[in-house]
Amino acid sequence: MYDTAEKLTSSDRKDKIRERYKGINTNELEIIHARVRENIRKDDTERRVAVYARVSTDDPNQTSSYELQKNHYTDFVKNHPNWKLVKIYADEGISGTSLKHRDNFLEMIRDCEAGKIDLIITKHVSRFARNIVDCIKIVRELKALSPPVGVFFETENLYTLDEDSELTLSIMSMLAQEESHTKSETMNASIEMRFRRGIFLTPSLLGYDRDENGSLVINEEEAKIVRLIFFMYLKGYTCQNIADTLTKIGRKTKNGNDTWSAGTILQILQNERHCGDVLARKTFTPSYLDHRSKKNRHDRNQYLHRDNHDPIISRDDFIAVQHLIANAKYRNKSILPELHVITEGVLSGYVTVNPRWSGFTANDYLGASGCVPSVDSCHDTVEVTARSGDFDLRGYEVARSQFFDLRERICVTFSSTQIIFSTKAVRKFGSNTPIEMLVNPVKKMIAVRPCKADCRSKMVWSKVRSGRIIPKAVPGTAFLPALFSLFGWNSSCKYRIIGILLKNDKESILIFSLSDTEALIPKDSAWQKKDEMTPLITSIGSKNVLGYPSSWAENFGSNYYIQAQADELAEFQNNPKWDTASEGIPYRESEIIPTSQEDLAKNINSLISEIRQEVENERNGPT
pLDDT: is 57 or 161 the higher one? Predict the structure, then answer.
């Protein structure tokens, strides 16, 4: 067979193809005709019909549109004798760009899948869905059911079981989606123009009513609850404690609920309108298709108007509460920490680091250290006199200890989330001794001293395992961002600093100089762009590059007569009174004076009494 086909010429093959495609006599064929295509406008087939109606807002003015749609399609179905109305599925106040919250629509689709519906009728494509993906997907799924379910769009005169319907439906869905997009952009532009002119939205808020102009005016009865909430939180009560207290008293929420929740209390505490300010656009909606709200982290313009209306609580109390809320996860409950700066002894100018407070910035540390009168730490040039037989060591350098094995050295490693000291370091102060860390941002120095167990800024840096003291990581998510900013460090890197132990008869302290910092740089980071830390590479590990400042490439260490850490050594050696346990004094650049603890206690008792009496009067009714 193959050989014969090979011998045929091209012309012969073409003739055979032409002969074959002449076909046979059509009289010899029996045609089995296809079922007549359904015509929804003239078809007399019995159908179970569902009607879908939707209005995009729940405004009372939209009720007329909603009722007209229902009445119109009820009559529409009645005009077809063979149609039976299953149900009118209707969603009020729901957008068509997403299936989310369209409960009746989703119920209708489930009924189609259960075989209860043969035909869906709706006004037009935009009522069915304004999202092209959802629209086409659902229509295809309905069409694939057995038996298939069609959708009839009256305005477009479009029936989805027609063979040529999908192209038209795609175009109409795209237009409906773009219409929603245009409306969304128009609304966003309108909101932006309102905010730029200081015209803000004024939603319902505990403690306030709205006047005829929509402005906030204090509701004195509710304002007592707001003050009680803020005073109790400043006094150290948790949100749940406050919620339980209000529930027990019997005061209802703004929405009329009998039970208060911790979440409701937290929202009240974080709302700046209670101190008279308005911050517009705290959240925004990135996509008009899913309408999911997102916290505004400088993604859109925000507008802050101070003293927009009368405050219920002072701004200082509000700011203090925000600090406490931000630091609650670091176990701060009832105190409002301050930076403490040492003013006496060898640690003068050092600022204590509070490990559980995130409210301090790099500028706060600089300001606190700078408020202490500086003592010139630059020593006069000392003339070196060579005696007979002495070696002249000028030009010689003391090699940096970082270039040698660090396993037996005192050092500390900083990452963006924690600090860990070396084993050699944690064994210097004895077993289970907590420490306090101090920083001198001017001299670029860090000091570590032992402290008492009740010290508010204590850190636990060690633990005991099998009778041996070993390092324990110190969590630092509260304060490390400020230190990284202060030292100009990259948060993607780790930094290791060599330290020394200084001690006399009674005192011991660890000193770390930031001039001797080495960096552990992730291989995939853009450290090359940082001029101050373009590293002198000494080794490459599996994850990190170990590097030093580029200035170290030109030498091995410091001049023999100007050794590294000479200044800090001189400060201790030349000062007969160390006083390393000296307590710092409070420092604040801008004074925030919240309500005193004594006044808080008085106000809380007074407000609870007043609110309880008001609730009792409401229950008893007018006398």
Answer: 161
